[in-house]
Amino acid sequence: xxxxxxxxxxxxxxYKLVPRLRFPEFNDAGEWEVKPLNKACQxxxxxxxxxxxxxxxDLESVKDGTLLQKKNIQLDGAPxxxxxxxxxxxxxxxxxRPYQQNNYFFNTEESIPYVASTGxxxxxxCESNDYLFQYLHNDKFLERVLDKCTGSxxxxxxxxxxxxxxxxxPSPLExxxxxxxxxxxxxxITAESKKLxxxxxxxxxxMQNLFPSDGKTTPNFRFPEFQNAxxxxxxxxxxxxxxxxxxxxxxAMVENGQYRFYTCAKEYYLIxxxxxxxxxxxxxxxxxxxxxxxxxxxKFNAYQRTYVLDQxxxxxxxxxxxxxxxxxxxxxxxxxxxxxxYIVISTLTxxxxxxxxxxxExxxxxxxxxxxxxxxxxxxQKIEVLxxxxxxxMQxxxxxxxxNHKSK
Length: 408
What we know:
By secondary structure, the protein is of the alpha+beta class.
Protein backbone atom coordinates (compact mmCIF):
# COMPACT_ATOMS: atom_id res chain seq x y z
CA UNK A 1 0.00 0.00 0.00
CA UNK A 2 1.42 3.39 -1.00
CA UNK A 3 2.02 6.18 1.51
CA UNK A 4 -0.56 8.29 -0.33
CA UNK A 5 -3.32 5.73 0.23
CA UNK A 6 -2.40 5.35 3.88
CA UNK A 7 -2.59 9.11 4.41
CA UNK A 8 -6.02 9.30 2.77
CA UNK A 9 -7.41 6.57 5.00
CA UNK A 10 -5.95 8.25 8.07
CA UNK A 11 -7.54 11.58 7.10
CA UNK A 12 -10.91 9.93 6.62
CA UNK A 13 -10.72 8.26 10.02
CA UNK A 14 -9.86 11.58 11.64
CA TYR A 15 -13.29 12.98 10.78
CA LYS A 16 -15.47 10.73 12.87
CA LEU A 17 -18.57 12.58 13.96
CA VAL A 18 -17.51 13.41 17.49
CA PRO A 19 -17.16 16.78 19.21
CA ARG A 20 -13.81 18.42 19.90
CA LEU A 21 -14.68 18.58 23.59
CA ARG A 22 -16.30 15.59 25.25
CA PHE A 23 -17.05 14.72 28.85
CA PRO A 24 -14.61 12.01 30.01
CA GLU A 25 -17.27 9.37 30.63
CA PHE A 26 -18.28 9.52 26.95
CA ASN A 27 -14.81 9.39 25.36
CA ASP A 28 -15.37 5.78 24.29
CA ALA A 29 -19.05 6.17 23.46
CA GLY A 30 -18.46 6.18 19.70
CA GLU A 31 -19.71 8.45 16.94
CA TRP A 32 -22.80 10.62 17.09
CA GLU A 33 -25.76 9.89 14.86
CA VAL A 34 -26.97 12.29 12.18
CA LYS A 35 -30.73 12.63 11.73
CA PRO A 36 -33.06 15.06 9.98
CA LEU A 37 -34.83 17.19 12.55
CA ASN A 38 -38.16 15.43 12.03
CA LYS A 39 -36.57 12.11 13.04
CA ALA A 40 -35.25 13.59 16.29
CA CYS A 41 -38.51 15.28 17.25
CA GLN A 42 -42.11 15.81 16.29
CA UNK A 43 -42.51 18.98 14.22
CA UNK A 44 -45.80 20.81 14.78
CA UNK A 45 -47.73 18.00 16.52
CA UNK A 46 -51.32 17.89 15.33
CA UNK A 47 -54.09 19.35 17.51
CA UNK A 48 -57.74 18.33 17.39
CA UNK A 49 -59.27 21.25 19.29
CA UNK A 50 -57.99 24.40 20.91
CA UNK A 51 -59.18 25.39 24.41
CA UNK A 52 -61.74 28.18 24.79
CA UNK A 53 -59.32 30.32 26.80
CA UNK A 54 -55.53 30.34 26.68
CA UNK A 55 -52.33 32.38 26.91
CA UNK A 56 -51.21 33.30 23.40
CA UNK A 57 -47.49 33.33 22.57
CA ASP A 58 -46.76 35.36 19.42
CA LEU A 59 -43.47 36.49 17.92
CA GLU A 60 -43.41 39.63 20.07
CA SER A 61 -43.89 37.65 23.28
CA VAL A 62 -40.41 36.11 23.46
CA LYS A 63 -36.94 37.65 23.53
CA ASP A 64 -33.67 35.88 24.31
CA GLY A 65 -35.52 32.81 25.51
CA THR A 66 -37.69 34.74 27.98
CA LEU A 67 -41.47 35.11 27.82
CA LEU A 68 -41.98 38.86 28.12
CA GLN A 69 -45.75 39.00 28.31
CA LYS A 70 -48.78 36.78 28.81
CA LYS A 71 -51.68 37.54 26.50
CA ASN A 72 -54.86 35.99 27.86
CA ILE A 73 -57.36 35.63 25.02
CA GLN A 74 -60.57 33.81 24.15
CA LEU A 75 -60.71 31.34 21.28
CA ASP A 76 -63.47 33.25 19.47
CA GLY A 77 -61.24 36.35 19.40
CA ALA A 78 -57.95 34.57 18.70
CA PRO A 79 -55.89 35.34 15.58
CA UNK A 80 -55.83 32.67 12.89
CA UNK A 81 -52.12 32.03 13.59
CA UNK A 82 -52.90 30.76 17.12
CA UNK A 83 -52.63 27.02 16.40
CA UNK A 84 -49.76 25.46 18.38
CA UNK A 85 -51.16 23.97 21.61
CA UNK A 86 -48.16 23.60 23.92
CA UNK A 87 -47.18 20.74 26.16
CA UNK A 88 -44.57 21.04 28.92
CA UNK A 89 -41.12 20.46 27.38
CA UNK A 90 -42.03 21.76 23.92
CA UNK A 91 -39.51 23.92 22.10
CA UNK A 92 -40.62 26.87 19.99
CA UNK A 93 -38.29 27.75 17.12
CA UNK A 94 -38.70 31.21 15.58
CA UNK A 95 -39.21 30.68 11.84
CA UNK A 96 -39.53 34.35 10.87
CA ARG A 97 -36.17 36.18 11.14
CA PRO A 98 -34.62 33.12 12.85
CA TYR A 99 -31.27 34.95 13.16
CA GLN A 100 -32.80 36.75 16.16
CA GLN A 101 -32.87 33.38 17.96
CA ASN A 102 -35.89 34.34 20.06
CA ASN A 103 -36.70 30.70 20.67
CA TYR A 104 -38.57 29.49 23.73
CA PHE A 105 -38.38 26.40 25.93
CA PHE A 106 -41.86 25.90 27.33
CA ASN A 107 -41.28 24.42 30.76
CA THR A 108 -44.23 25.93 32.60
CA GLU A 109 -46.86 24.21 34.69
CA GLU A 110 -50.01 26.31 34.87
CA SER A 111 -53.69 25.48 34.90
CA ILE A 112 -54.37 27.70 31.89
CA PRO A 113 -53.13 26.28 28.55
CA TYR A 114 -50.68 28.04 26.23
CA VAL A 115 -51.06 28.35 22.46
CA ALA A 116 -48.30 29.62 20.17
CA SER A 117 -48.33 31.33 16.80
CA THR A 118 -47.58 29.50 13.57
CA GLY A 119 -44.66 31.92 13.31
CA UNK A 120 -42.95 29.29 15.47
CA UNK A 121 -42.20 25.68 14.71
CA UNK A 122 -43.33 23.56 17.64
CA UNK A 123 -40.76 20.84 18.35
CA UNK A 124 -41.27 17.92 20.73
CA UNK A 125 -38.07 15.90 21.16
CA CYS A 126 -38.04 12.12 21.01
CA GLU A 127 -35.38 12.08 23.76
CA SER A 128 -34.15 15.30 25.41
CA ASN A 129 -36.03 18.57 24.90
CA ASP A 130 -33.28 20.36 26.86
CA TYR A 131 -30.64 19.14 24.41
CA LEU A 132 -32.78 20.03 21.42
CA PHE A 133 -33.30 23.58 22.68
CA GLN A 134 -29.56 24.09 23.13
CA TYR A 135 -28.72 22.56 19.76
CA LEU A 136 -31.03 25.00 17.94
CA HIS A 137 -28.70 27.81 19.07
CA ASN A 138 -25.64 26.21 17.54
CA ASP A 139 -24.17 28.59 14.92
CA LYS A 140 -23.78 25.81 12.35
CA PHE A 141 -27.43 24.84 12.69
CA LEU A 142 -28.49 28.48 12.31
CA GLU A 143 -26.37 28.77 9.14
CA ARG A 144 -28.23 25.83 7.61
CA VAL A 145 -31.56 27.40 8.59
CA LEU A 146 -30.64 30.74 7.01
CA ASP A 147 -29.55 28.99 3.80
CA LYS A 148 -33.14 27.74 3.41
CA CYS A 149 -34.86 31.02 4.29
CA THR A 150 -36.76 33.02 1.69
CA GLY A 151 -37.59 36.73 1.69
CA SER A 152 -35.36 39.73 2.31
CA UNK A 153 -37.07 42.05 4.81
CA UNK A 154 -38.58 39.17 6.81
CA UNK A 155 -36.56 36.06 5.96
CA UNK A 156 -38.42 32.93 7.00
CA UNK A 157 -38.08 29.17 6.74
CA UNK A 158 -40.93 26.76 6.04
CA UNK A 159 -41.65 23.98 8.54
CA UNK A 160 -41.15 21.43 5.78
CA UNK A 161 -37.66 22.76 5.06
CA UNK A 162 -36.78 23.03 8.75
CA UNK A 163 -37.81 19.39 9.24
CA UNK A 164 -35.17 18.20 6.75
CA UNK A 165 -32.20 19.97 8.34
CA UNK A 166 -29.84 17.43 9.87
CA UNK A 167 -28.71 17.52 13.48
CA UNK A 168 -26.16 15.48 15.43
CA UNK A 169 -27.45 13.28 18.24
CA PRO A 170 -25.41 11.42 20.91
CA SER A 171 -26.81 8.98 23.47
CA PRO A 172 -29.59 10.26 25.77
CA LEU A 173 -27.17 10.40 28.73
CA GLU A 174 -24.66 12.50 26.79
CA UNK A 175 -27.45 14.72 25.49
CA UNK A 176 -28.52 15.49 29.04
CA UNK A 177 -24.95 16.12 30.22
CA UNK A 178 -24.43 18.68 27.44
CA UNK A 179 -27.81 20.29 28.09
CA UNK A 180 -27.11 20.55 31.83
CA UNK A 181 -23.74 22.19 31.17
CA UNK A 182 -25.12 24.80 28.78
CA UNK A 183 -28.25 25.37 30.87
CA UNK A 184 -26.07 26.19 33.89
CA UNK A 185 -24.47 28.97 31.86
CA UNK A 186 -27.93 30.15 30.82
CA UNK A 187 -28.84 30.33 34.51
CA UNK A 188 -25.77 32.49 35.16
CA ILE A 189 -26.64 34.76 32.22
CA THR A 190 -30.21 35.08 33.52
CA ALA A 191 -29.01 35.92 37.03
CA GLU A 192 -26.54 38.52 35.75
CA SER A 193 -29.19 39.96 33.42
CA LYS A 194 -31.51 40.43 36.39
CA LYS A 195 -28.71 42.29 38.18
CA LEU A 196 -28.33 44.49 35.11
CA UNK A 197 -32.05 45.28 35.08
CA UNK A 198 -31.84 46.08 38.79
CA UNK A 199 -29.01 48.56 38.19
CA UNK A 200 -30.90 50.15 35.29
CA UNK A 201 -34.01 50.49 37.44
CA UNK A 202 -31.90 52.01 40.21
CA UNK A 203 -30.59 54.59 37.74
CA UNK A 204 -34.14 55.38 36.62
CA UNK A 205 -35.13 55.90 40.23
CA UNK A 206 -32.16 58.19 40.77
CA MET A 207 -33.07 60.27 37.73
CA GLN A 208 -36.67 60.60 38.90
CA ASN A 209 -35.50 61.93 42.26
CA LEU A 210 -32.44 63.95 41.28
CA PHE A 211 -34.34 66.07 38.73
CA PRO A 212 -37.49 68.10 39.49
CA SER A 213 -40.82 66.56 38.49
CA ASP A 214 -43.00 68.47 36.03
CA GLY A 215 -44.25 71.70 37.59
CA LYS A 216 -41.69 71.68 40.43
CA THR A 217 -38.56 73.80 40.90
CA THR A 218 -36.61 71.46 43.19
CA PRO A 219 -35.95 67.71 43.05
CA ASN A 220 -37.31 65.15 45.51
CA PHE A 221 -33.78 64.34 46.65
CA ARG A 222 -30.97 66.83 47.14
CA PHE A 223 -27.44 66.23 48.35
CA PRO A 224 -27.01 67.64 51.92
CA GLU A 225 -24.61 70.40 50.94
CA PHE A 226 -27.19 71.84 48.52
CA GLN A 227 -30.29 71.66 50.72
CA ASN A 228 -30.36 75.46 51.08
CA ALA A 229 -29.14 76.32 47.58
CA UNK A 230 -32.53 77.62 46.44
CA UNK A 231 -34.82 76.75 43.57
CA UNK A 232 -33.60 75.57 40.21
CA UNK A 233 -33.97 78.07 37.37
CA UNK A 234 -35.85 77.34 34.16
CA UNK A 235 -34.34 78.47 30.88
CA UNK A 236 -34.11 77.17 27.32
CA UNK A 237 -31.41 74.78 26.16
CA UNK A 238 -30.35 77.03 23.27
CA UNK A 239 -29.11 79.62 25.77
CA UNK A 240 -26.47 77.26 27.11
CA UNK A 241 -24.91 75.52 24.11
CA UNK A 242 -24.45 75.69 20.36
CA UNK A 243 -26.77 73.35 18.44
CA UNK A 244 -26.02 72.38 14.83
CA UNK A 245 -26.41 69.31 12.63
CA UNK A 246 -24.05 67.19 10.60
CA UNK A 247 -23.92 67.84 6.87
CA UNK A 248 -23.28 64.40 5.39
CA UNK A 249 -25.54 61.58 4.23
CA UNK A 250 -25.03 57.85 4.74
CA UNK A 251 -23.06 57.56 1.49
CA ALA A 252 -20.19 59.36 3.18
CA MET A 253 -19.36 56.30 5.28
CA VAL A 254 -16.11 54.45 4.57
CA GLU A 255 -14.74 51.29 6.10
CA ASN A 256 -11.17 52.31 6.88
CA GLY A 257 -11.30 56.02 7.58
CA GLN A 258 -9.58 57.94 10.33
CA TYR A 259 -12.45 59.73 12.11
CA ARG A 260 -15.75 58.76 13.71
CA PHE A 261 -18.98 59.29 11.76
CA TYR A 262 -22.14 59.44 13.86
CA THR A 263 -25.50 58.49 12.40
CA CYS A 264 -29.08 58.31 13.63
CA ALA A 265 -28.69 54.54 13.89
CA LYS A 266 -26.13 55.25 16.64
CA GLU A 267 -23.47 53.11 15.01
CA TYR A 268 -20.10 54.80 14.83
CA TYR A 269 -18.32 54.55 11.52
CA LEU A 270 -14.94 55.84 10.43
CA ILE A 271 -14.63 58.56 7.82
CA UNK A 272 -11.80 60.31 5.97
CA UNK A 273 -12.49 63.88 7.09
CA UNK A 274 -13.84 65.59 10.18
CA UNK A 275 -16.08 68.64 10.64
CA UNK A 276 -16.02 68.89 14.45
CA UNK A 277 -13.20 68.92 16.97
CA UNK A 278 -14.86 69.35 20.34
CA UNK A 279 -16.54 67.55 23.23
CA UNK A 280 -20.16 67.25 22.29
CA UNK A 281 -23.48 65.57 22.82
CA UNK A 282 -24.82 63.91 19.68
CA UNK A 283 -28.57 63.41 19.45
CA UNK A 284 -30.24 61.12 16.87
CA UNK A 285 -32.85 63.15 15.02
CA UNK A 286 -34.98 60.38 13.51
CA UNK A 287 -35.29 56.67 12.96
CA UNK A 288 -35.79 53.88 15.48
CA UNK A 289 -33.28 55.48 17.86
CA UNK A 290 -34.67 59.01 17.74
CA UNK A 291 -33.60 60.91 20.85
CA UNK A 292 -30.60 58.67 21.58
CA UNK A 293 -27.81 60.72 23.18
CA UNK A 294 -24.08 60.02 22.97
CA UNK A 295 -21.09 61.91 24.35
CA UNK A 296 -17.89 62.12 22.33
CA UNK A 297 -14.74 64.21 22.58
CA UNK A 298 -12.37 64.63 19.64
CA LYS A 299 -12.49 64.91 15.87
CA PHE A 300 -15.60 63.52 14.18
CA ASN A 301 -18.25 64.02 11.54
CA ALA A 302 -22.01 63.54 11.65
CA TYR A 303 -25.01 62.57 9.57
CA GLN A 304 -27.32 65.40 8.51
CA ARG A 305 -30.08 64.24 10.88
CA THR A 306 -27.75 63.99 13.88
CA TYR A 307 -27.70 67.06 16.13
CA VAL A 308 -24.39 68.21 17.58
CA LEU A 309 -24.51 70.11 20.88
CA ASP A 310 -21.27 71.74 22.09
CA GLN A 311 -19.77 74.92 23.58
CA UNK A 312 -21.70 74.44 26.84
CA UNK A 313 -21.96 77.12 29.51
CA UNK A 314 -23.23 74.46 31.95
CA UNK A 315 -21.91 71.04 32.94
CA UNK A 316 -22.13 68.93 29.76
CA UNK A 317 -22.83 65.68 31.61
CA UNK A 318 -25.58 67.25 33.69
CA UNK A 319 -27.23 68.36 30.44
CA UNK A 320 -26.76 64.85 29.00
CA UNK A 321 -28.62 63.24 31.89
CA UNK A 322 -31.27 65.98 31.92
CA UNK A 323 -31.96 65.23 28.26
CA UNK A 324 -32.03 61.48 28.92
CA UNK A 325 -34.67 62.16 31.56
CA UNK A 326 -36.82 64.64 29.63
CA UNK A 327 -36.17 64.74 25.89
CA UNK A 328 -38.44 61.80 25.04
CA UNK A 329 -41.38 63.63 26.66
CA UNK A 330 -40.78 66.66 24.45
CA UNK A 331 -40.52 64.50 21.33
CA UNK A 332 -43.80 62.78 22.21
CA UNK A 333 -45.50 66.13 22.82
CA UNK A 334 -44.39 67.52 19.46
CA UNK A 335 -45.29 64.38 17.50
CA UNK A 336 -48.32 64.84 15.27
CA UNK A 337 -50.85 62.03 15.16
CA UNK A 338 -49.93 59.40 12.61
CA UNK A 339 -46.42 60.76 12.07
CA UNK A 340 -43.18 58.97 12.91
CA UNK A 341 -41.47 60.91 15.72
CA TYR A 342 -38.49 63.04 14.73
CA ILE A 343 -36.55 66.03 16.03
CA VAL A 344 -36.27 69.46 14.40
CA ILE A 345 -33.71 71.95 15.65
CA SER A 346 -36.31 73.91 17.65
CA THR A 347 -37.11 70.71 19.57
CA LEU A 348 -33.73 71.21 21.19
CA THR A 349 -33.09 74.97 21.07
CA UNK A 350 -36.46 75.87 22.62
CA UNK A 351 -36.58 73.01 25.12
CA UNK A 352 -37.15 74.18 28.71
CA UNK A 353 -34.45 72.93 31.07
CA UNK A 354 -34.24 73.37 34.83
CA UNK A 355 -30.76 74.09 36.20
CA UNK A 356 -29.32 74.33 39.71
CA UNK A 357 -27.68 77.73 40.20
CA UNK A 358 -24.56 76.10 41.60
CA UNK A 359 -22.49 74.23 39.00
CA UNK A 360 -21.08 72.04 41.75
CA GLU A 361 -24.57 70.63 42.26
CA UNK A 362 -24.80 69.90 38.55
CA UNK A 363 -21.47 68.07 38.73
CA UNK A 364 -22.52 66.10 41.81
CA UNK A 365 -25.67 64.88 40.08
CA UNK A 366 -23.73 64.04 36.89
CA UNK A 367 -21.06 62.13 38.88
CA UNK A 368 -23.73 60.09 40.67
CA UNK A 369 -25.43 59.08 37.41
CA UNK A 370 -22.09 58.50 35.66
CA UNK A 371 -21.21 55.97 38.36
CA UNK A 372 -24.51 54.19 37.70
CA UNK A 373 -23.62 54.09 33.99
CA UNK A 374 -20.22 52.60 34.82
CA UNK A 375 -21.95 49.84 36.78
CA UNK A 376 -24.30 49.23 33.84
CA UNK A 377 -21.37 49.03 31.40
CA UNK A 378 -19.45 46.66 33.67
CA UNK A 379 -22.45 44.40 34.17
CA UNK A 380 -23.23 44.41 30.43
CA GLN A 381 -19.64 43.36 29.69
CA LYS A 382 -19.89 40.55 32.24
CA ILE A 383 -22.98 39.21 30.48
CA GLU A 384 -21.27 39.43 27.07
CA VAL A 385 -18.29 37.47 28.43
CA LEU A 386 -20.65 34.71 29.59
CA UNK A 387 -22.43 34.65 26.22
CA UNK A 388 -19.10 34.46 24.39
CA UNK A 389 -17.98 31.66 26.70
CA UNK A 390 -21.16 29.72 26.01
CA UNK A 391 -20.82 30.20 22.26
CA UNK A 392 -17.25 28.89 22.41
CA UNK A 393 -18.36 25.85 24.41
CA MET A 394 -21.13 25.10 21.93
CA GLN A 395 -18.65 25.12 19.06
CA UNK A 396 -16.69 22.42 20.88
CA UNK A 397 -19.54 20.39 22.40
CA UNK A 398 -21.39 19.95 19.08
CA UNK A 399 -19.56 18.28 16.18
CA UNK A 400 -19.49 19.97 12.80
CA UNK A 401 -21.78 17.98 10.51
CA UNK A 402 -20.64 19.99 7.50
CA UNK A 403 -17.00 19.03 8.08
CA ASN A 404 -18.01 15.41 8.42
CA HIS A 405 -19.86 15.54 5.10
CA LYS A 406 -16.90 17.19 3.32
CA SER A 407 -14.56 14.44 4.45
CA LYS A 408 -16.63 11.68 2.90
